[in-house]
């Protein structure tokens, strides 16, 4: 690898190792979270309460020396509670913009599906275009800009399912899952006197993150790999078990995250294994399965797993 890519890989590994001091036994999940950051995308963490969703987001944010804000979503929130408001200043005789908590570099949107769809949609513009518009005036978001959202499963009371357009803006959706028995014992031991997150410090700056994001684009992707990505995403559009398949945004997401995964694993080229490893967290939440009495177990995850078994894996000429 070139020096630039090698330096970027070291930065990514340092961030992962730092987060792993807080989130025990979930290295693969932490890597996916860092991949989302490296790919200039946003991350959705979905799981049951108490498994560490918020702690993963907080420890990742704390590992990077960036402006951090946390938004606790509730059913009575208004869009202006997130984006900010324009307030009239009597001294200047003009309106002043007072930014909301979303105007930060790292934003934790905690329990995003507790808020109504109207409030959820307030995030659409900033997630897709890196800006917000308040009273007709556009305000650019700081860079880097990264949203980590957590949500409880929609079966829980008091939740509002994210609409398809909102879900599609998230680069990755991950599930943390319960720890193993050994890891759970380790978690209890580490928290006997204080929480490990209190002892971690930033290991990267905003500039480091921007260099990392730029270096990802230099990872080589063979044309056969691009065709494989197109085949996987295209298969979601022709499958009778799927009502709505992934759009080209899904292909681009799979392309960019595969570059980031290759870098983390010490390569300057993408392999088919990168696509197979990322297809589920990148594409599953973008699909709408056809649910019938005989197909109640069909979810985006199971459909993607079956599709990967049927699509031929290309042999790649490494550059």
CATH domain class of the largest domain: Alpha Beta
The CATH topology name of the largest domain reads Rossmann fold
Number of helices: 13
Number of strand elements? 13
Q: Which structural class fits the helix and strand makeup?
A: alpha/beta
Structurally, how many domains make up the residues? Answer: 2
Q: Largest sheet at a glance?
A: 5 strands, parallel
CATH superfamily of the largest domain: P-loop containing nucleotide triphosphate hydrolases
What fraction of the residues are assigned to beta strands by DSSP? Answer: 15-25%
Brief summary:
The chain is α/β, with parallel strands linked by helices and 319 residues long. It is built from 13 helices and 13 strands.
Q: How would you portray this structure in words?
A:
The protein has helices at 3-20, 27-38, 53-62, 80-83, 117-120, 124-129, 164-167, 181-190, 206-216, 223-235, 248-264, 272-283, 300-310; strands at 43-46, 64-65, 68-72, 84-89, 94-99, 106-110, 131-134, 137-140, 146-151, 172-174, 204-205, 242-244, 288-289. It has 13 helices and 13 strands. The longest helix has 18 residues, at 3-20. The chain folds into two domains: 1-76 and 104-218, P-loop containing nucleotide triphosphate hydrolases (Rossmann fold), CATH 3.40.50.300; 219-319, Orthogonal Bundle (Helicase, Ruva Protein, domain 3), CATH 1.10.8. The protein has a five-stranded parallel beta sheet with strand order 3-6-9-1-10. Strands 2-11 form a two-stranded parallel ribbon. By secondary structure, it is α/β, with parallel strands linked by helices. Mean pLDDT is 87; it is low at 293-297. It is globular, with a radius of gyration of 20 Å.
């Amino acid at each position: 690898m070139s020096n630039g890519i090698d330096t970027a890989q070291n930065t990514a590994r340092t961030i992962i190792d730092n987060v792993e001091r807080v989130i025990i036994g979930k290295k693969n999940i932490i890597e996916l979270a860092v991949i989302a950051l490296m790919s200039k995308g946003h991350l959705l963490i979905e799981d049951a309460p108490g498994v560490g969703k918020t702690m993963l987001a907080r420890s990742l944010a704390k590992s990077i020396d960036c402006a951090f804000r946390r938004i606790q979503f509730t059913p009575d929130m208004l869009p202006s509670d997130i984006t900010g408001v324009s307030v009239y200043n009597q001294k200047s005789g003009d309106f002043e913009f007072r930014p909301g908590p979303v105007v930060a570099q790292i934003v934790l949107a905690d329990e995003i599906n507790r808020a109504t769809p109207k409030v959820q949609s307030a995030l659409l513009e900033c997630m897709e275009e890196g800006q917000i518009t308040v009273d007709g005036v556009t305000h650019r978001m700081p860079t880097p800009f990264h949203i980590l959202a957590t949500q409880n499963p929609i079966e829980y009371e008091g939740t509002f399912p994210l609409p398809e357009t909102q879900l599609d803006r998230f680069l990755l959706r991950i599930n943390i899952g319960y720890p193993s028995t050994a890891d759970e014992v380790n978690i209890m031991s580490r928290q006997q006197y204080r929480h490990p997150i209190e002892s971690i410090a930033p290991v990267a700056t905003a500039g480091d993150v921007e260099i990392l994001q730029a270096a990802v684009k230099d990872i080589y992707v063979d044309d056969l790999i691009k065709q494989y990505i197109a085949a996987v995403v295209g298969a979601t559009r022709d499958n009778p078990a799927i009502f709505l398949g992934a759009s080209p945004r899904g292909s681009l997401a799979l392309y960019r995250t595969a570059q980031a995964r290759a870098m983390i694993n010490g390569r300057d080229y993408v392999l088919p294994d990168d696509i197979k490893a990322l297809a589920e967290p990148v594409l599953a939440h973008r699909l709408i399965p056809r649910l019938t009495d005989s197909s109640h177990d069909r979810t985006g995850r199971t459909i993607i797993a079956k599709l990967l078994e049927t699509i031929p894996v290309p042999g790649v000429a490494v550059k």
